[in-house]
Design brief:
Elements: H1 5-35, H2 49-56, H3 62-71, H4 78-88, E1 95-97, E2 115-120, E3 123-128, H5 132-136, H6 142-149, H7 154-159, H8 176-192, H9 215-224, H10 227-236, E4 240-243, H11 244-251, H12 266-277, E5 284-286, E6 290-293, H13 296-347
Antiparallel strand pairs: 1-2, 2-3, 4-6, 5-6
Protein name: MYO1B protein
Organism: Atrichornis clamosus
Region (Actin-binding): 184-206
């Protein structure tokens, strides 16, 4: 119920993870259709980049203003930090404060004077401003780091590399918010170089009890996890896409014209293959470099046909091998019979 600096940092990380989820699924999904020249009706979705910018903007972001309050001379309190937020973020559509210049929150009794509220992707969250400045400014002093580095215990020494006299930096140590922001940026950079698979876990109830299903809780999670937008994009688009070369290589055994070798462009081979299998035209589309299949059942049908064909090919290989083995044995026995007969006639 009482959200402070720690929950604010956690929710910031969640917003960044949601942003990369949007970019790698919803945005990338629709941009791929455009690149491939596929007819497509754009699906609207909420991009939470505006919320991330509210928190991490280097000039007017909440973390930047918090650092500014921690570094400026004079009397600095949580109230002065909130006052600065009220001045800079008053007109932001996702920032709410009772003391801001925005008159629409002056009579909001659900919002205390010492709090501000952010409309996150998952919903509105109210933060108690008390403790923000102290927690952000909770720095490890340089003399403590040096003392820990001089310890005889190797683990303690390794935990405080900044205490090494050879690496002394006279600059002010970064604040907790700045360190977390840098860590999140490193994490996002790492994730963008990967091809992640998302597993969304739905919590059925808050009691961790079996056979209890809280419909309101589940619906709330579905909304803030972005599953509705993802399902809309998937249902309106194509469930499966693959480059022409690997697609032809995988399913070419299903068509006599493409098996065992297809001489020509891979796209033309896939087209011949799909025409041979009599797959309805509305079930697939040809992109510039990929084949797009709309419904999973079409893909399941291809996989079932491929599985059956592999079994038939295995049976054919086994039949030919057994025939060759029996013929080889027969010819060997025939040759032996001739040799035995010739020697018998010689001595008869």
């Amino acid at each position: 119920q009482d959200n402070s600096f720690e929950q604010f940092i956690i929710n910031y990380c969640n917003e960044k993870l949601q942003q990369i989820f949007i970019e790698l699924t919803l945005k990338e999904e629709q941009e791929e259709y455009i690149r491939e020249g596929i007819e497509w009706t754009h699906i609207e979705y909420f991009n939470n980049a505006i919320i991330c910018d509210l928190i991490e903007n280097n000039q007017i972001g909440i973390l930047a203003m918090l650092d500014e309050e921690c570094l400026r001379p004079g009397t600095v309190t949580d109230d002065t930090f909130l006052e600065k937020l009220n001045q800079v973020c008053a007109t932001h559509q996702h920032f709410e404060s009772r003391m801001s210049k925005c008159s629409r929150f002056l009579n909001d009794t659900s919002l205390p004077h010492s709090c501000f509220r952010i409309q996150h992707y998952a919903g509105k969250v109210m933060y108690q401003v008390e403790g923000f400045v102290d927690k952000n400014n909770d720095l490890l002093y340089r003399d403590l780091s040096q003392a820990m580095w001089k310890a005889n215990h190797s683990l303690i020494k390794a935990l405080f590399p900044e205490g090494n006299p050879a690496k002394i930096n006279l600059k002010r140590p970064p604040t907790a918010g700045s360190q977390f922001k840098a860590s999140v940026a490193t994490l996002m950079k790492n994730l963008q170089t990967k091809n992640p698979n998302y597993i969304r876990c739905i919590k059925p109830n808050d009691k961790k009890a079996a056979q209890v299903f809280n419909e309101a809780l589940v619906c709330h999670q579905i909304r803030y996890l972005g599953l509705l937008e993802n399902v809309r994009v998937r249902r309106a688009g194509y469930a499966f896409r693959q480059a022409y070369e690997p697609c032809l290589e995988r399913y070419k055994m299903l068509c006599r014209q493409t098996w065992p070798h297809w001489k020509g462009p891979a796209r033309a081979g896939v087209k011949v293959l799909f025409n041979e299998l009599r797959i309805p035209e509305e079930e697939f589309s040809f992109g510039r470099s990929k084949i797009f299949i709309r419904n999973p059942r079409t893909l399941f049908k291809l996989e079932d046909l491929r599985k059956q064909r592999l079994e038939d090919l295995a049976t054919l290989i086994e039949k030919i091998y057994r025939g060759w083995k029996c013929r080889t044995r027969f010819l060997l026995m025939k040759k032996c019979q001739i040799v035995i007969a010739s020697w018998y006639r010689r001595y008869a």
